[in-house]
Every structure is written in C-alpha cells, then in structure tokens.
Amino acid sequence: MIITGNIKKARQICKRHRKKSKRIGFIPTMGALHEGHMSLVNKARKECDFVVASIFVNPLQFGPAEDLTRYPRDFGKDEKRLKTAGVDLLFYPKASVMYPAGFSTYVQEASLSKELCGKYRPNHFKGVCTVLAKLFNIIGPDIAYFGQKDHQQSQIVKKIISDLNYDIKIKVLPIVREKGRLAMSSRNAYLSVPERAKSTCLYEALCLASELIKKGERNPQKISAGMRKVVKTKKNTKIDYIEIVDAKTLNKINKISGKVLIAMAVYIGKTRLIDNIILNVKK
Amino acid sequence: MIITGNIKKARQICKRHRKKSKRIGFIPTMGALHEGHMSLVNKARKECDFVVASIFVNPLQFGPAEDLTRYPRDFGKDEKRLKTAGVDLLFYPKASVMYPAGFSTYVQEASLSKELCGKYRPNHFKGVCTVLAKLFNIIGPDIAYFGQKDHQQSQIVKKIISDLNYDIKIKVLPIVREKGRLAMSSRNAYLSVPERAKSTCLYEALCLASELIKKGERNPQKISAGMRKVVKTKKNTKIDYIEIVDAKTLNKINKISGKVLIAMAVYIGKTRLIDNIILNVKK
C-alpha cells in the first residue's frame, strides 16, 4: 500500500492506472475506521482493479461549536486495517495541503442540503461537497463508496455528481451495526458505558417505526410520535430531529408510501448520533 | 468536426482521446465568435492534439435584468469558423441538458468574485464557475484557453482550478482589438454606428493611464480621475467602474507598483463594455 499526503503524487499514481483502463474504486473517510468503513473497502476490493482510500478529518464540514479537535484519530490502526484489506493507495493529506492560505472556492448543493441534518449543521454539507469535489478531482475514481448511515450525504453526493457531470458512479452500502444494534460510527468512541447502553434507543425507535408500518400505520406524525416516546424514556438525550421523508427528495411526506426514509439525529449526552432505515412501502 | 449537444457522447469522445494520451485543448465560448475567440482556437490547434470548443449561452451567469435573451447567436456562422479553424469537436448543448429540472449544485469562488464586475453582477461568477466545472468534468481538457479581456474571469478560473484541484492548465491570451482599438466582444454587435464611435473612449482612457504611468505617475486616484474625464467627454455613457488593482489579487492598491491591472466597465448607451490593460511597473 502506497501512502501519500502529496496531491500531485496521488494524482499521478491514479492517472497512470486510469490510462491502463484500470477501474479505480475510492473510499473517502475521516479515519477512526470501523466495520462500516471496512465493508466499503471490501466491496471496492471485489469490484475494482485499484482501490484508493483517503483519511482526512475535513475542518470545513465541522461547525465552530462541533467536535473537530476531539474527533477520534488513530492513523496507525487505520493504516494496518487498510493494508490488510488490500487497499492500494492511501491518501492522507494535511489540512494545510487541502486548504492552503487564501482558499476561496466552495461547492454547494442548495436543495437536499437544507433538509434533516442541514437544519442543525448549516455549513456541514457545503464542507462535505467541497472536499469531495477536490478528492474526486485528485483521485478520478470510477466508483466511490459511501455508507447508508449518512443517507442524506450519499443523496447529496449523487446530486453533485449528476449536476456537475462528474463521471463517477456512487455505491451506497448498508449500515453496519454493533452487537447492540447501534449503527457503527467513529463518534461511538465518545460514549461512556452507560451512554452506550442508552444509545440503543435509536435503533429501537426505528424498529418501532418499521413495525407500525408493517401493521398498516400510514400516518408519519403518529409514527414519529411513537419514536420520540422511545427516545425520551432515556435520560440525558436530546432529539435534533426524527423525520419521515421521501428517500430521494428528502421532502416531508403526508402519507407513508413508496421509498421512505426514517431518519433521526439524537444527542446521547454530548454525542450526536444519527441513524436511519429505508423502507419500500407498497402504494 | 463532430458536433454534439449530448453530454455522454462528448465525454466518451474526449475520454477515448485522453486514453491515447492525446493532449486536449478546450475553448469554452458563448458563441457569436470573433477574432478574440479565434485566437484561442488557433493557439489550441497549435498546442494540442484534439481541440474542443463549446458554444453555450449560459443562463446562470446572466442577471435577471441582463441581456440573456437578446445575446447574439449565430450558430451557422460559428460552426463554419470553428470547422475552418480545425476544431475537432464542437459541444453545443441545450440549456435543458446542462440544467435539467431540479438542478441545485453551484460552484462559487468567494474572494476574487466580489471585486470589479462582481460588485455590479452579483451572481455572474457563480454562474461562470458552475458551468465551467461542468464543462471541465465533461471534456476533461489538459489546457483551457481564455481571453485577457475577461481578466477577472481568468483569475477566478485559475483559482477554482487550484482550489478544487482540477488537473487543467489555464492559458490566457491577449485582447484582440478592432481597427478603432475597441476590444473585440460579442456584445459589440449591440452598438449603433454613433455608439461604436463613442466606444473608443475605453481604450483611450486605458492609453491615458498607460502614458501617465510611463511619465512617472504612481497615484491610482489621479490616474482613474483622468480616465473618468476621458469617458465623460462622451454623452450617454455610464461608468460602472474604473479601477486600478493588483493584477493577481484584484485588491485595490495605494501606489502603482508591480503587476497592475487597470480595468473598466462602461455603458455605451445600453451596452455594457469591459476593457483592461495589465502593466508591469518596476518597484
């Protein structure tokens, strides 16, 4: 596995493989890798000739009051996992390389980005879109892999790929869960033992929603009210949102029908967790 | 010369040439081609293996009160000129192909775009940057050619290329002038015969500035005051701006020194014309 933080070098290596018609798979990450990330790497290894992963804790996607400085970092461990999984190139740039002094260009998606997490993290997706445009231009992948846990992010990425005519296919893989069914996330490392026990309430709420819909409930308000109750049984939790929306447009729906996203963001203590399920409900 | 308005087809053709290590030159235009455009095409023909031009009157870069609908269009004539000049591929998409319903992604440069024309055309450069990001992603050129008449635009393009890590070289070629020294522009077609006579005041003002500097004047205010006088001798003119700035940062300067841009935007009747000169003044 080649490791570089040099943009030119990463670009040259990828360019060489592209010219040989090698299929390039790309997994952009912020490191602190877990099984969710590794499922993307493994899929890319199966589908592509040349697998590139990036580790970059992108300052542009953190709000001023968010957890940029304390975001978990463990390069040594990440490096080993990626090497063992057969990654060919690890791009690991410094923030000063990605955003040199005077940096002033931004990529912004103006519709999907305003929904769900966008309401609570106002410049988050602008930061995500900007860094991804940069990474896509450096690596030039054929396929980029994302996790369904960040469903909104993957929808936004698909939109910028389509709107800006990037020649990249986006693949979204299922959420990987811990034993207690908590969705894997680098931020789970923040949770204390009692918080970790509480954090199961997210998945429990999603399961309740799923059950209610199976039983015929079609009123989103009733479902989200039930979900809220599940979360509120746990102390020291704060709900940012629990929403039931069209899985593609992320617009609120009045009746459960078609491809539906049930998404939530909940603070367990000071740790903000997100989770979701997508259901295909017959019309 | 292949002509297509199909994004996939244009992309496939360029991709094929890129894989063969052909050097792709690209000249993005809004059509109504003049000698200024053709100088870019001729340069690309000399320097590149495969020359692509685009004609697209980009609605996104026009303000609501601007001249989108009456902007000059003459595809038949443009096509002939480009064919004669040896262009290999002409990309000529419809607006509905470039901006399908629900389009929501924008590329914005937030510093240089606020200066000069940016003050008078608030969303102009956002439109320019967005369409160029799209065109760059479709064509994938090695070199893209721009004219110095739009100096601010070419500086902004260089900035987004650098900030977003596009693997493209930007070349800027000198302003081509008509016999009366009016800078060539598609918008010159709007000018009546008396307006065309008046329009020489832009270049006259620039020449005055150049002379004053040669004679040792280093005070930008004094120079621009002189330039204003030149323009104001002509009736029915309105100055948007006459500015003397650092040619790279576009920031105002207090003393003429180094690489200096003298730029102006003036209405002759209802037609907004821009012009500039760049001087290298010994420190």
Structure report:
2 copies of one chain form a homodimer. The first copy, chain A, is an alpha/beta fold and 283 residues long. The first copy, chain A, has 2 domains: 2-173, Rossmann fold, CATH 3.40.50; 186-276, Pantoate--beta-alanine Ligase, Chain: A,domain 2. Chain A has 10 helices and 10 strands. In chain A, strands 1-4-3-2-6-7 form a 6-stranded parallel sheet, with helices on both faces. In chain A, strands 8-9-10 form a 3-stranded antiparallel sheet. In chain A, helix 7 (151-163) links the parallel strand 6 (143-147) and strand 7 (169-173). In chain A, helix 6 crosses helix 7 (151-163). The longest helix of chain A has 16 residues, at 124-139. The radius of gyration of chain A is 19 Å and the shape is globular. The first copy, chain A, starts with a strand and ends with a strand. The relative contact order of chain A is 0.13.
